[in-house]
Amino acid sequence: MSFSAIRLEEKQQAFAELREIKTLLASRGWFPGTSGNLSIRTGEFSPEQFAFAITASGKDKSVHTPSDYLLVDQSGQPIETTGLKPSAETLIHCEIYRLTGCGAIFHVHTVFNNLVSELYAERGSVPVDGVELIKAFNIWEEEAHIDIPILPNYAEIPRIAELVEGAIVPRIPGILLRKHGIYAWGANAFEAKRHLEAFEFLFEYAYRWALLKK
User: What does this protein's record comment on cofactor binding (predicted)?
Assistant: First the structure.
């Protein structure tokens, strides 16, 4: 695939979808202190070569500017001339795209995803049993049980990226970083949003349920 083959309208569509989801999630307070990042894959895909639009580093996601997004390649490097820097965690997006072929990845920091990641850190996953929102992941068995993977939050992003392959569970479209936040993905922006919202509901449920059981 040649990156020059990415059509202008594909790029504009990805940027427009990112703006829409950024507006919605910012209104919920899910991007405190310029945290979080969003990306949408564009153009053709192979595990060895692909491109995606991602939020630029250090931007206030509650406002809109002409320099909020950029295109990067499968190594997280900009594919157009730009002074913008991709999110510091772009390498994690690269690994998730490479391994899953998904179409969008959304990463947010919330109080409940941080609390539950610490609560179950030693276990290495957040257990959830029989909650209706599990169906958002297309898991339909009655009283389904899932375990949402937790990875350590190293300061060096490449160390985290190296662990992504071993953490991905095929039917669970997300990975939680300890005391950091959730990466949720889907075939497109709509599905990734649905998965993200389901994860956040389940994290709050799991944390409150654990407190009630004490």
Answer: Binds 1 zinc ion per subunit.
CA angle 56, 58, 61 (to 5 degrees): 75
Question: What is the reported pTM?
Answer: 0.96
Residue 153 · residue 146 · CB < 8 Å: no
Q: Cα separation of 110 and 180, whole Å?
A: 8
Q: pLDDT tens digits, residue range 194-214?
A: 999 999 999 999 999 999 987
Q: Which residues of the chain have pLDDT under 50?
A: none
CB 112 within 8 A of CB 120: no
Which residue spans within the chain are E strands per DSSP?
37-46, 49-55, 69-73, 104-108, 125-129, 145-151, 174-177, 181-186
User: For 5-44, how does the pLDDT look when each residue is reduced to its tens digit (9 = 90+)?
Assistant: 788 899 999 999 999 999 999 999 999 999 999 999 999 9
Nearest CA to 100 among 180, 150, 45, 39? 45
Residue numbers in the known binding site for Zn(2+) are 107, 109
Q: What are the structure tokens assigned to 173, written together?
A: 């479209």
Q: Which amino acid is at 171?
A: R
pLDDT at residue 78 in the model: 95
Q: Which residues are annotated as a binding site?
A: 107, 109
